Sequence to fold (251 residues):
Amino acid sequence: MNRNKLSHILIFVFISSAIWAQTRSTNEPDGNKILKKVDENLMPASFESYRKLINEEPDGSKKEFIFYTVKKGKDKVAMLYVSPASEKGRATLRLGDNMWLFIPNVGKPIRITSMQSVVGGVFNNADIMRLDYSVEYEAAISDQTPSGYILNLKARTQTVAYDRLKMWVDKKDIMVTKVECYAASGTLIKTLQFKTIKNFGDGIMRPAVIETSSPLYKGYRSLMIYSNMKLRNFPDEVFSLEYLPRLGELR
Fold:
C-alpha cells in the first residue's frame, strides 16, 4: 500500500471517528436538560394555584391548610393562607434564597429560613415555596432504565435546603415520580412521592398530589394536594414585601 493511500485511509478513519463521537454526544441525554424539562412540566413560567396541605400525626390527628399561591419566573413565589381561620391573612414571600412571613397586625414581615416550617409537619418552607429545581441544583444522570432516569442533583450553593437530591423521572412524560432529599452528611432527610397525574387545562399536566415522609419524624406524614392551577401573568410589584398585605386582592 502506498503512502498516499494509507494517508487517505487514516484521514477517513479520523473524520469518521470524530463524526461518530459528536453524534453520540449530541444524542446522549443530559442531566441538566432533563431537569429543566421536569421543571417546565411541574410549574409554568407564571401561574396561580390553590393547594391543600394536610399534616398527619402518629395519633391519627390532622391539621389542614389551604393556600393561594402565585409564581413568576424562576425565583418569585408568594403565598396567601386562605384557611384555617386562625391563619387567614398570613402570607409568605420568596425571592431567590430569601423568605419572609407576614402576619396581620404584627408589623413588618419576619425573615424565615428554608429549613423552617411555618405550618409544621414534614414539609419545610422550601418544599412549600419551591423554586425550579434547575435554579438550585446541578444534575447528572446516575442510571437509566427503558422507562426512566435516575438523576443525582447537587446543590449549587450552601443556602439550598438540601445538599443533594436523588430524583426518579419517567421517560415518557419527563415527569418526576420520586425525590429523596439528603443532608451534606449523607443522611436521608425525607422522601417526596409525586402522584395522581392530572390535566389542569392550559396545557398543564402534572402530579396533583405530593406526599412526604421522613425517617427523622416517624409516624408523621404530609400531603400537598393541588386543586387548581392556571396560567396567569403578574406585575413584579406583586412579589414585594409591600404587596404582601394585599395578596388577597388577586383572588
In short: Residues 3-27 form the longest helix (25 residues). The helical segments are 3-27, 31-42, 125-128, 133-136.
